[in-house]
Write a structure and sequence with these properties.
This protein is mostly helical. The chain has a domain at about 5-25 and about 375-395 and about 425-525. About 50% of the residues lie in helices and about 5% in strands. The protein has helices at about 5-20, 30-40, 50-55, 60-65, 75-80, 90-95, 115, 130-145, 150-160, 170-185, 190-200, 200-205, 235-245, 255-260, 305-315, 315-330, 335-350, 355-360, 365-370, 380-390, 395-410, 435-445, 470-480, 485-495, 515-525; strands at about 265-270, 275-280, 290, 295, 395, 455, 500-505, 515. A two-stranded antiparallel ribbon has the order 1-2. A two-stranded antiparallel ribbon has the order 3-4. Strands 5-6 form a two-stranded antiparallel ribbon. A hairpin with a 6-residue loop joins β1 (about 265-270) and β2 (about 275-280). α2 (about 30-40) packs across α3 (about 50-55), α13 (about 235-245) packs across α14 and α22 (about 435-445) runs antiparallel to α25 (about 515-525). The protein is globular and about 85 Å long.
């Protein structure tokens, strides 16, 4: 990329970092604007022709269809995903097919030959391949799936109940965690998500609850025999702070300890094989517990943890916390308090019915308000998916790998968030010159056809190569639906005389040619496109 074009990209970065959500002009007709808004919030952006398709069935009907994803035909996506062999495998099968790498330490096996010492399975059989195929599948689904809202909610709930793929055994558990817990309940009930994550090996391992025992327990067998085990509070703390009540949910450090005691014995059977949840009474703390004012009598077992989950599910702070996160994702970084309360009331009335909460959200005037439109910055994952969709691109599994790498370069490596908070959903986390420049580098690679496995045809956008003003206008309509602010238009219009955009013939006699591909990349890098 030339120095001059980098300067242009940085100018757009400045606009993106400071642009107002109200800057888009002119405003398209209300019905089109509403459809574009719905496609940007309830899906990963519009494809060419999507506005007309939604109009044909009606916006309300389209939303209802998205709320019932099993009724939408997604067989084309499933055929693409069938080329990723790890996706349907059980945890036991993944351990077998993608074994951990052999130790390089010869002292562990003095009979190991020098050749065997450094033998490694081929890349497609290494454990990291499990994560790579999950990443590829996420991008394929986000771009190609008809079940767009389900994909949005899978992303939302995975961040809410985040696990880090690089921690220990988690990479072997990851496929099942998303496939068997997050995805089936993404539009179901919060209580099913809560219990499903609490009992899944991925969460038990990630937050160390599988190691938590009553304080006086000493193993008599195994590598840790004779060593005092003890209570681990990691899961108990994050269960209340991040999964249910929120940091201001009214619990104390004493409550954290009591919750941790309630979940002792919730562990993993055969963690390096089938890895199933198991309750082990021997290591459970059977003493009396008091949590948020609820007394749990002594002598209990697995039911202690079950009672805690029920208590947290029905606590008013949980309804408020989940409602706040949903409103932040779908409306604004600063959630309107009145809407939060209405969504929280729906949570309480329905015991956490996610579809009911989403219906309350999209029925609200706050969701459709002009100030809510383009008020959110897209996370890298969202940006990559929406860019491919906007130019009418189609992807195979190979493209999913490449696109996941670009999202990681922008700061969002899928399944790679180390803290239990997952990836943030606020603008300040994603708006900086380095990250935005990485986005624009991706946009150039996309529009110039340099991404393996991505097929796209920009010829409908390139019919005005000989007329730069018309070429730019066509791109603004197609990619931004005409909603470009005056500053963005000024920056882009100034580039129409840039020799990298307006290419003259060698003898300066023939008609100049507009590099529509580079111009399209600049539009995709604009602040309006980076917002949803």
């Amino acid at each position: 990329m030339s120095i001059r074009l980098v300067t242009v990209l940085l100018a757009l970065c400045v606009l993106a970092s400071g642009a107002s959500a109200h800057a888009a002009t002119p405003t398209p007709p209300a019905d089109d604007a509403a459809i574009v808004h719905a496609l940007s919030r309830l899906a990963f952006g519009a494809r060419p022709g999507d506005i007309e398709r939604v109009k044909a069935i009606g916006l309300a009907a389209w939303i209802e269809r998205q709320l019932e994803p099993r009724r939408l035909d997604d067989r084309a996506v499933e055929r693409t995903l069938a080329t990723l062999p790890s996706l349907p495998m059980s945890i036991a099968e993944l351990h077998k097919e993608y074994p951990r790498l052999p130790a390089r330490d010869k002292s562990a096996d003095p009979q190991m030959t020098p050749r065997a010492l450094y033998e490694r399975p081929p890349p497609e059989k290494r454990p990291i391949r499990i994560v790579a195929e999950m990443q590829a599948a996420r991008l394929v689904r986000a771009i190609e799936s008809e079940r767009q809202l389900e994909e949005v909610m899978v992303d939302f709930w995975f961040n809410h109940f985040n696990v880090h793929a690089a921690k220990g055994e988690v990479k072997w558990y990851l496929t099942s965690y998303e496939r068997d817990v997050i995805r089936p309940h993404a539009l179901g009930r919060f209580g099913d998500l809560l219990r499903g994550t609490a009992t899944h090996p991925a969460m038990l391992f990630y937050l160390d609850n599988w190691l938590s025992t009553r304080p006086d327990f000493t193993p008599r067998f195994g590598p840790n025999r004779g060593k005092r085990a003890g209570l681990n509070e990691n899961y108990a703390r994050e269960l209340m702070e991040l999964h249910t009540l929120g940091v201001d949910g009214g619990y104390t450090q004493k409550d954290v300890t009591e919750v941790a005691r309630a979940f002792t014995g919730w562990t993993i059977d055969r963690p390096r094989d089938a890895a199933r949840f198991v309750f082990r009474p021997l290591v459970h703390d059977r003493g009396e517990k008091t949590i948020l004012g609820l007394r749990i009598s002594a002598g209990g077992g697995q039911g202690d943890g079950e009672r805690v989950l029920s208590l947290l599910l029905h606590h008013p702070a949980t309804a408020r916390f989940i409602a706040t996160k949903l409103v932040r994702r779908f409306v604004s970084d600063e959630p309107p308090p009145a809407l939060v309360e209405r969504v929280a009331a729906t949570f309480r009335a329905t015991e956490g019915d996610i579809k009911a909460m989403l219906r309350a959200l999209v029925a609200s005037p706050e969701f459709w308000a002009p100030e809510a439109r383009r008020a959110k910055i897209k996370k890298p994952f969202e940006y990559v998916a929406s860019a491919v969709r906007a130019v009418g691109g189609h992807v195979d599994a190979r493209a999913g790998f490449a696109l996941a790498r670009y999202a990681a370069e922008m700061g969002e490596g899928l399944y790679g968030a180390q803290p239990p908070t997952g990836y943030p959903d606020r603008a300040e986390a994603w708006v900086n010159a380095g990250a935005l420049l990485a986005r624009m580098n991706f946009a150039l690679a996309l529009t110039q056809g340099r991404l393996p496995g991505v097929t796209l045809d920009l010829s409908p956008l390139a019919v005005d190569r000989g007329a730069p003003d018309a070429a730019l206008e066509r791109l603004l309509v197609a990619l931004l639906h005409g909603e470009a602010s005056a500053p963005t238009r000024a920056v882009l219009t100034a580039q129409l005389t840039n020799p990298e955009i307006r290419r003259q013939t060698p003898d300066d006699r023939g008609p100049a040619d507009t590099d529509v591909e580079k111009l399209a990349a600049l539009v995709i890098g604009s602040p309006e496109f980076q917002r949803r």
